């Protein structure tokens, strides 16, 4: 069957043919319908630190996966052939410790399965498994609730969801995004102000700033912008290091949290909003054979919204 392999840092993804998986005890095999692309997929190509998550190479990347169960293993009673599911990527973790969704069929532990609600597409469900989960999980980490002023850095695959769900939770949302072409969409999602840099909201006394970009300087700017005793949440991994102004952190009593992924409940919440139409993140679908080209779009910064590969009809 078709698959993509990660073979090592500083080496391109390889399009390969590999044997089909079978469902072991407590596992199912799903026919993958949609598999997302993420800036983390760029990260594994560029930074050796990611190898800590990958005990065995090569591995099939792809941690945003949705499909239909086609085989169940021994002891599986709560799931059946034909069930439509999304995959919670923190088990494995998907696409790092175990093969991910960049393949025609994937073996998945039942503990990672999340049922799809009616009214959601496979592409949306795939995006919900990381972009949705991680975005909502960061809001939870930051304690975002109604009445708060929340800064969002980056209105890409993650930030567009985080901004919208923060608005749906009743927060006042401020978006920092360097690409002015998406400013109108940010306002449509509920942002009361949009600017190129989070520092432009210094006078707005933001309670929480969530950095969905994570390019080092973006986090540094957040620390110097958030209000006294405010909270900064780092989500994006555009870079794996940041230099922070400890003077600003100490005098401002700023709390900085890292937020990694989220819960199955966060995925379910994201899919619920998508199915109802309240959350409609921009998703660009590409063909399975175009995955390497899609990764290059992420490198170049030309990707529109969340990229999701269509694996099968």
From TrEMBL:
Keyword NADP recorded: no
Domain Enoyl reductase (ER): 8-309
InterPro entries given in the database record: ADH-like_C (IPR013149), ADH-like_N (IPR013154), ADH_Zn_CS (IPR002328), ER (IPR020843), GroES-like_sf (IPR011032), NAD(P)-bd_dom_sf (IPR036291)
GO molecular function terms noted in the UniProt entry: alcohol dehydrogenase (NAD+) activity; zinc ion binding
Cofactor(s) needed by this chain: Zn(2+)
Coiled coil: none
Documented EC number(s): 1.1.1.1
Keywords from the named record: Metal-binding, Oxidoreductase, Zinc
Reactions mediated catalytically: a primary alcohol + NAD(+) = an aldehyde + NADH + H(+); a secondary alcohol + NAD(+) = a ketone + NADH + H(+)
Source domain of life: Bacteria
UniProt-listed CDD domains: hydroxyacyl_CoA_DH
Pfam families, alphabetized: ADH_N, ADH_zinc_N
Stored Gene3D superfamilies: Medium-chain alcohol dehydrogenases, catalytic domain, NAD(P)-binding Rossmann-like Domain
Family: Belongs to the zinc-containing alcohol dehydrogenase family.
Name of the protein: alcohol dehydrogenase
Organism: Kytococcus aerolatus
Species lineage: Bacteria, Bacillati, Actinomycetota, Actinomycetes, Micrococcales
